[in-house]
Each structure stands twice: as structure tokens, then as C-alpha cells.
Amino acid sequence: MNYQILPRITSPKDLKHLSREELLQLAAEVREALCSVVATRPAHFASNLGVVELCVALHLVFDFAKDRLIWDTGHQIYPHKLVTGRFNDFQTIRERGGLMGYPNPWESDYDLFMTGHAGSSVSTVLGLKAADDILRAKENRKSVAVIGDGALPSGIVFEAFNNAAGMNKDLLVILNDNKMGICPRVGGLAEYLDHARTAPFYNGLKKDISWLLNKVPLVGETVEGVLAQAKDAVKGFLHGGMLFEELGFRYIGPVEGHDLFKLIETLEMVKDVRGPVLLHVFTEKGHGFEPACEDPVKFHSPSPFQRTDDGRVVPVKKSGSRAYTDVVSDAIHTAMGTDERVCVLTAAMCAGNKLEKIRSDFPKRFFDVGICEGHAVAFAGGMAKAGAKPIVDIYSTFLQRSFDQVFQEVALQNLPVVFTLDRGGLAGADGPTHHGVFDNAYMRIFPNMTVMAPGDESDVETMLDFALKHNGPTSLRYPKAAAERVERRVAPVEFGKAEIYRWGKDGMFVAYGAMFPTCVTAAERLKDEGLDVGVINARFVKPIDIATLGRAIEECPFLITVEENTLPGGFGSAVLEVANAAGLRTDTIRVLGLPDQFVEHGDREEILAELGLDADGLAATARSLADRGTYHASK
Length: 635
Prior knowledge:
This protein is an alpha/beta fold.
């Protein structure tokens, strides 16, 4: 496409010089830019198509060089990046060294928080407003949070609503209601919002409802009682926002979210209103691109595609290999077919966790609780207490949100809840908000918790079967990666037992989780060079097989632990802890993993190579230890 408007937008100030026709053309060019990115790499797509007009209207009405804007969840940030002067770099989005697919304060002053988890926008923007009122009272900065209906049920949202209303801060919350999270929204709040879609526009700033209330006849009741009842009844009839008004917000809406000029008019109306305001905006996920409108789940973050002249979508390429997510989903499906006590809970990630077939085949034992991870874990605790076998299938990075429930409602009660942690490790182009690199540390600290990871595809089903039979909480992590298989006679999964793939007299790799195949590859290369380095598939980080690892520490000149997890508190730390407790030497142990810093986005294999965690890097580490002089390679 020959972009005419976007190259001229160096900041949102440039929008104010555009005519109405040029603003509409700008919206079309933003959608075309989104399509051009998705033609080359996976990226968040349908959600961004749905907020184009809202984004343009916000930047026309407010001055976010001074005012405050938080996008929640953050994956719908692409139009915002384009209108804040990042068009020239837009084709680098989600590439190593390029623009991030989420807000990034290091890219632009218009991005205030690096937001990748849902629900926190109202809290953070309220904090910004409170501090601005203290420190910059004369500037009268406006504060705006844009939150989706999928994120709305998160408990922290209602905590923030309650606090904002109590403080009576000037705050605008825009509810971007597209009837979707990543998957269709669920629960009672979803039904409430559906009702609001059929209600006429309601302006919570106006007092014209008083005319009708004054006509209410009084029959044997106090004036105050009748007026109170009538007010509630009339408001409930006229609009679907009574819940928000009862929470202390002025409700305005619903407003068509793709009528750019109606949005501008409405935002102008509310921008100077005192107190907390909720503006309810209806949008369509995928708007402007028919295939995405028809299937917003598929086009939430689609694989690269090309558009044909007749409007069809053709995939650019399709991988033939199965991902670990597919393998785990199949294993869960098998377990549910075998044992009617097995249930699955997820937090708005049915598609991401590949649970559609489970939802279809076992609808009574499948529970999508929405973006409410803490509730999911406590819910699972109740199920386990009653005798069910719940599997909590949530991304590693999102399970962090339920830390207290994992502690209180599961580990403390020693209940047999199985946690399957998808994206355990680097999440690739999604970047630091989504890298699941802390679970080895945060899960192993809990008493009663068994923490493990399959070394390859062969371990998955037997490890899940072990977890479902174990009388206590278990955690099983797996990466966002193509499933690999190491050819061997697979040892059975036994509690706290590692699997010895091959013993080495010159050194030993101890792999935790999906780094096992990489360690095998590195060991094979070293063997060709005459260096005999063995490989242990650790399987468990808690409990650690101290008998096997203790033997390796005593017999092998060096031992290298390898994990796709942050080093502080991770598998390597656990090995050092148990070695120290057993009185074993630790100076021959080298721990490899992710550094104590947030890792930027990029291709998973590329990041692993940069960190020395690919086969070449592991082999190089082994050579350096063997060349120290203390160690002698076999010839």
C-alpha cells in the first residue's frame, strides 16, 4: 500500500492537522499496516483491528504527552505505536531488537507501563492520578485506562473500582467491549454486558431522568422510599450500567466504537468531568478485516498469511511438527477419557492451551473461569478436597498471579491439584511479560509441592499420569516449542528419580525439562571430539535425586546443570543447596540458565543461542571446564 498519512505522523500532535477525510484514511492505513505485519510473522491482530478508531479519538481529544493513558492488557497497542511516531520501525515489531508487541517505556514516553497481564490498568492509572494531584496539582493531568471486557472480571479491577470511587478521583475508564477475551468471554458479568448492548444510550452526567421520577405517584409510602425504588427501576430499564453506578462511577454508553467522530464527540464531553467515569464502548474484534471478524479466536494471533484477490486468507507456511502444548493437551484428553474424576480448569486460555477438543468432548469437566487465575486455583482446591482430580492448565507467567492461592488453598492443605504450566521458559516474540522463567523458583519453595518437567515428548503422558496418581500438589512445566523426542529406552517416572541417559567419565550435563535434547546434542558433538560427557534427565527439581546427582558430583570432574529458567532460585540453585546439605563439593558444579534480568523478545532459539544455552554454547562450556587442567578428557 502507498501510505500517505502514516509517514507524516511523528507524534499525536500531527493528528490535529488532519481533515475528517484524512482521519478516516489514517484509520484505513493503520489497518493495512497491521495486515502487512501479520503477513510476515505471528502477531496480535484482531484485537488491534478493533481499537483503531478508539486509539485515534483518544489521541485527538487528550494530550498524552502530559495526560496519562494505560492500555490493558497491552496486546492492542499497535495502533497506539503507529500514531505515536513509530511507523518507520513498525515492520520490526516482535523481532529481536525491534519494537515490542506490548507497551514499552524504553521505546516511547507515551508508553507508561510494560503491560502484558490483564486487569491492572485501573489500579496503575489511579496511582498516577493520585501522585499527579499531589506533585503536579496545577497541571490538571487527565488519567485514562482502556480495559477490555475480557479483563474486566479480574478481581484487581473491582478492588481498583472500589478504591477509585472512595477517593472520588477524576478518572476515565473506557470499557472496550468486543464480547471477547482471546476466546469468547464467560460468566455472569458477560451476560450483564450482553444486556447492556441492547439498552439505549445513557448519559450518567445528565439529570433528565428526574422529570420521570417527579411523575411517580405516591401510594401509601414515603416520598424517599418511592423515589429510591423508582430511580433504581428506571435506571435499570434505561441502561445496562447500573452496576458501575452502584460502584460509584458515572456510567455513559453504550457508544459505537467504530464511529470515529461520535467517539471524539463523546470523549470531549467526558474529558473534564469530575469524579470517576466509565465510558462503555462497543467494538468488533477484527473490525475492517472480514476473516478476522468471522473468526476472532483464530485471528487473535494468527500464523503468517497472505490475502488473495478475492479476499481469502492463505497461510504462508504451516509447521508440520507438534508443539509441547499439543502433546500435553492430548495427554490430558486421554486422562479425562480414562478417569471421570479428572477435570480441567483454565483462565481464558482455551485456545492458547489447545483445549478446544477437551471443551467439546468433556464439557461438564471443563471450566474456563475467565482471566481470574487466583480464583481458578482456589476453585481447584475445593474440587480436590471433594475428591475430584483437577488439572489447572495455565501459562507459567499467568500462574504467578495466583501465588497466594497456590500457597494457601493448595500447598498448605496438601491437596492433589495438578498444575500444567504452559510456556515454561522463553515465550519468544511475546517478550518479558510472557516469558515463563520464574516457575522453577516460585513453585519449589512450597512445602508439599512436587515440581517436575518432562525432558522430551516421551516423558509427557507418563509424567501426567504420575501427577494424577500422586497424593499431593504437583507442578509440570513445558515450553512454547516444537516437541522433541530423544530415542532411548525410556525409564519409568518415579517420585524424585532422575533418568540417566548416558554416564560420562569426563563430565556430566544435568538437564531439567526441555533442555534435555539440547544437552544430548551437545554431548554427541563432544563425543566426536573425544570428550566423554554424560547426560542426566533430571525430571524433578523437587525432590531432587540426590543419590544420582551425588554420584555424578563425586565421580565426574565437572557437572553442568542446564535449565530454561532464571538462575536465582532455579534448578541449579536447588542442586547446590542439596549438595551443600549432603556435604558434597560444589566447586565443580556450573549452573547454566537465564540471567538475573528481564530477557527481551525474540525467537526462542535465537535467545537461547545468545545466552549460551544452545548445543554450541553448552559444548563450549564443557570444553572450557575440561581445559582447566584439573579435568582430563578421554582420548
